[in-house]
Amino acid sequence: MPGVTYLRPRDVADAVRLYGEQLACRPIAGGTDIMVMLHAGVLQPAPSALLDLWHLGELKGIRRVNGGEALEIGAAEPYTGIIRSALVREHLPALVAAAQTIGAAQIQNRGTLGGNLANASPAGDTLPVLLAYDAMAVTDRRTIPVGEFFTGYRKTALGAGELIVAVRFPLDGRTVRFRKVGTRAAQAISKVVLAVSRAPARIAVGSVAEVPLRARGAEAALARGDVGGAVAAVAADIRPIDDVRSTAAYRRAVAQNVLRDLLDASPRR
Amino acid sequence: MRDSAATATVGRSVPRREGADKVTGRARYTDDLVVPGAWYGKTIRSTVARGTLRSITLDPAFDWSRVVVVTADDIAPGENVVQLIRDDQPALARVGGEIRHHAEPILLLAAPDKATLEEAALRVRIAYAPLEPVLELERATETYSTIEVVKGDVDAAFRAADLIVERTFRVGLQEQLYIEPQGAIAQPNDRGGITVIGSLQCPYYVHRALKRALALNDEQAVVIQAETGGGFGGKEEYPSVVAIHAALLARKAGRPVRLIYDRHEDLAATTKRHPGVITHRTGVRRDGTLLAQDVEIVLDGGAYCTLTPVVLSRAAIHAAGPYACPNVRIRARAVATHTPPNGAFRGFGAPQSLFAAELMVEHVAERLGKPSLDLRRKWMLRVGDSTATGQVLTESVSAELVLDAALKAAPPIRPSAHPSVRRGRGLSLVFHGSGFTGSGEKKLSGKVAVACTKSGAFTILTASTEIGQGTKTIFSQIAADALGVPLDQVTVGAQDTSLVPDSGPTVASRTAMIVGGLIHDAATALRARLEREPPPLRVERTYVQPDTVHWDDETYRGDAYPVYGWACTIADVDVDTATGEVRVTDVVTAVDCGKAIHPVMAEGQIEGGALQAVGWATIEEIKMKDGRYLNDRLATYLIPTALDAPRLKTILVENPYSGGPFGAKGIGELPMDGPAPAIIAAIHDATGAWLDEVPATPEKVLTACASS
Amino acid sequence: MRFVLNGRSVSVAAPGSRRLLDLLREDLGFTGTKEGCGEGECGACSVLIDGQVVNSCLVAAGQVEGCDVVTIEGLAPPGGTLSPLQQAFIERGAAQCGICTPGMLLAAHALLRDNPRPSAAEVRVGLAGNLCRCTGYTKIIEAVLACRA
Predict the structure, then answer these.
(1) Together in a domain, B520 and B498
(2) Which residues of chain B lie closer than 8 angstroms to C96, CB-CB?
(3) Inter-chain CB proximity A8 and C125 less than 8 Å
(4) Do the Cβ atoms of C135 and B178 come within 8 Å?
């Protein structure tokens, strides 16, 4: 792209320094969102440079941390790595399920959790799963609970020059179930996407508001053991719209149907 | 059957002639061609659906010396028209004239590099005086054409009927979605004209359009087809627009210009399948005897005529389905709206009207309490029956053959694995006329030549194009067998209008039967001459309509097509009642194309066409706002991926046609006609809910299930 | 940037933010990789980077520094013959218009390398990122299955 330079930091510290010096640059990992927008000329504001994080080893990898109490996934670890990881398959199977619904092989080989978070699309497929697992966004300077990460339509709590370095998941044995209702079987943006945990009660829904959100009313009913109440309440928790992909009425009805299915499938604790 | 030499290759699936180039990346499509000194071109388009074009202003602060600008004023001495049927579509809108659709071309830019081009595009200001657009077919006030097909006396027949069923169906827009977007490269040539190389199906359509818009003679205009990445009708007439634009830029710039569309522009601006509304009334006796069919068709042609009257024609002629009915009335009209013009897409009106015809069989059966299969067997056309246009079918009629073949091949119905998912099966029976309608082939007067060089190598000279369907291969097979020589002694010359005769367009399921037939004749004659004379020799053949084909353009009666292809489709679906999602899991198609010159390629046509129809029936939706398509990126215009695609099983049934080379009929469009009604019937079988439209999106299916 | 392309070291000066697709097609003349959409939806621009199939329209040129890139031109074994996969594509009718074929072959190649004996369902998953409009995918899947170990 004319006028957009390319910055290749040596390590994360270098990346943070460069980002701080050139606030108009845009971090890029796998590029599956950024490169589309860059080519279409719709990035606002237009970036002065791309800050390439893809090659930084510190941002890759999957490991247990905090004495085994948590699992950390590097912000630039591609979905393919997440899907194949024995650790993730054992402890966070809903994340594997979500990653497998993203794009197809080409996108899974480059797409990342860091990208999904930073892009902050309300349709981001992993985001309800991150909410349901009570994940944390680990940045170069602090930790942000994912529940506090999305502040508005495509807006995040990240400060100027702040980089996501990892996503951390508490390993507390909760079971999360996931379902995405996409526009087709692969390479699909979701019409509705849900991640649900019974204990603790978490009902996270995407594509039904300007942010991925937790359905608080439905969660309260679920926490009381009232599954029917949760299914009824979720309709009021969400604020879907009509758009090119679907309708508000459809999203509302399907969110309820899918929630019912996911709760019926979940073991009671 | 045409008398033929030893059939050494016809009927065998020989390797595709240009296959090695395609699997190694050596094949050169339009944008792969390196043209030294070429500039890049771009089309600036209307952002309103309707209005008067008030002014075009080029920002004076921009350095326009590095940019070539072409407006309607630059077209003279050529005519500002895209030549097709009616001279209603300008190549470029003119100031003071009317814009009739969103994305209508207004001016053209060319620059030495893409960055300058993009910058220049941002520096053009266009002012409109908006006018109220007509965006819905129901509100249209302008008609492009009307057709009436009448047989017997429907009104009397309805009076005698025990049961009359009426239903209205809607069919939606569809984008051809060739994976290679439209594009052309134009350059001034040494004949004082312009040579255009492009992604196209019909070199001579483009040739005629160039001559008119640039005031060139036959020799000055040169059109060459590059390797083309899919067409499906989308590159039948639209490439004339691209070529004229590229040529205008090249002429003004005095250098080559590349005009290559990106996907977004292609989706937003190029032709789509005609959407429409079809109302069917069928009258029957209690025992299921078919007495009368009364069909009304309204198709939306969009803002300019393009090929709409011909699409309407095919829709009308197929509207009664593959059935023998003594009393038929079909009234069809095509109307104008202020939406981008619609055009050719595989099937060309027949998928739309056959959708309605086939579902009517299901509805009549349901009302009568009889299996729809029984009605089809009772009603289907057989040798000696007459069609809606009064054509008596004398040979190669295979409705029953394909029906039995499909039923035999259909896998056993497997139960659903999930409580909220219901499985269902649906069937459809269709036919599709091969070749141009009525006197169309006579008017086209297609020509081919087969030549032999001194060294004994044979070349086929034809404007018929390879667009993936296997033209080069089957033509070589036909010629080689007729000549009695090995396949590798035969090549197909380039599709270059300065080198090959006009064989007619590569459309209308005519390539194997009509043009292949001419090649067979030419090769047979050449073989005979070679026995008496030494090479080099060249034999030409021009199409002559058989005197058994009688068609009356005025009354719209007679032999609409020389012969028909037949297909039976069985579709299995899974419907998720929690989400309305429809997954088509299996499609079995039995097809009679007379003779499969190349069985693997014939199957390829069936499988590819079937999946396009599956897409049209399920996920290929186009929503519009203010006359603009909302689905204008590949992320939002959805075609089936390998995961969406059903298992496709194909059975080739061969019921030869005496007028086709080795018995061959057409096959290109037929596969598009059957799946959509079969899928809707399958959804009903699964859920008890009837939909009356395609695409059957999850939103519509969920609503239909809820209310049934 | 310096990287390995189809087995040979290349060094090319270009803006790091340029799409790898454009670098390959325009700067290096490897036109086998196609642009079908520019959005990462169609897979016609697929290449292999360090053995992984990716959409080259989504890769910034600077990102291939030090990487091993393979395009369709590098798929056939040296010497002019065709790989079994390429041969199967021709024989089984898996290529019609051919525009999706380069990307499809690279995705199939990567799939078979990671999973030498895939089921038909696994082949569909592996090729789900490559749109084809001509074939209905049936013969593509057959060709890939015919090349199982």
Answers:
(1) yes
(2) 468-470, 601, 604, 608
(3) no
(4) no
Residues B518 and B473 in one domain: yes
- Judged by a CB distance cut-off of 8 A, whether residue A123 touches chain B is no
Q: Which residue ranges of chain B lie beneath pLDDT 70?
A: 1-7
Work out the mean pLDDT of chain C and round it to a whole number.
97
CATH at B89: 3.30.365.10
Domain holding B514, by residue range, is 19-29+440-542
Q: Residue A2: what pLDDT? A: 64
Residues B567 and B679 in one domain: yes
Task: Report which residue type is found at B624.
Answer: M
Chain B residues closer than 8 Å to C104 by CB: none
Top residue of C12, C17, C123 to mutate, by most chain A CBs within 10 Å, is C17
Residue-range domain boundaries for chain C? 2-74, 84-146
Q: Are residues B359 and B424 in the same domain?
A: yes
Is A10 in contact with A53 (CB distance < 8 Å)?
no
Phi, psi of C53 (to 5 degrees): -80, 130
CATH class of C2-74: alpha beta
Distance between CA atoms of residues B689 and B417, nearest Å: 21
Question: ∠ CA(B316), CA(B320), CA(B322), 5° rounding?
Answer: 115
Q: Which of B621, B641, B647 to mutate to test the interface with A (most CBs of A within 10 A)?
A: B641
Nearest to A254 among B115, B579, B583 (CB): B579
Residues B335 and B370 in one domain: yes
Query: Is the per-residue pLDDT at A71 higher than 70?
Result: yes
User: Are C47 and C54 a contacting pair, CB within 8 Å?
Assistant: yes
Q: Say if residue B260 is in the same domain as residue B283.
A: no
What is the structure's pLDDT at A268?
55
C67: CB partners within 8 A, 6+ apart: C3, C4, C49, C50
Considering the domain architecture, whether residues B244 and B292 belong to the same structural domain is answered as no
pTM here is: 0.98
Instruction: Give burial (CB, 10 Å; 0-12/13-18/19+) of B81.
Output: middle
Please provide the CATH number assigned to the domain covering C84-146. 1.10.150.120
Q: Does the CB of A55 have a partner CB in chain C at under 8 Å?
A: yes
Which neighbouring-strand residues pair with B672?
Answer: none
Supply the ipTM of this predicted assembly: 0.98
Residue of B nearest to C134 (CA): B608
Fold of A5-52: 3.30.43
Among candidates B579, B583, B635 on the partner chain, residue whose Cβ is nearest the Cβ of A189: B635
A/B interface, count of CB pairs below 8 Å: 56
Preceding amide of A200 cis, omega within 30: yes
- Which residues neighbour B32 within 8 Å (Cβ) at sequence distance 6 or greater? C25, C31
From CA A235, how far away is CA A226, in angstroms rounded? 15
Q: What is the CATH number of domain A57-170?
A: 3.30.465.10
A105 Cβ under 8 Å from any chain B Cβ? no
Q: How far is C60 from chain A (nearest CA, A)?
A: 8
Q: For B649, name the nearest residue in chain C, comparing CA atoms only.
A: C138
Which of B207, B100, B172 lies closest to B696 in space, CA to CA?
B172
Q: Which two tokens stand for residue B248?
A: 């205008």
- How many beta-carbon pairs below 8 A join chains A and C? 102
Asked whether the beta carbons of residue A105 and residue C15 sit closer than 8 angstroms, the reply is no
The CATH superfamily assigned to A176-265 is: CO dehydrogenase flavoprotein, C-terminal domain (3.30.390.50)
pLDDT in tens, B652-673: 999 999 999 999 999 999 999 9
Q: Centre a 10 Å sphere on the Cβ of residue B418 and count the other Cβ atoms it contains.
A: 11
Contacts of C137 in chain B (CB under 8 A): 607, 611, 642, 645
B585: closest chain C residue by CA:
C121
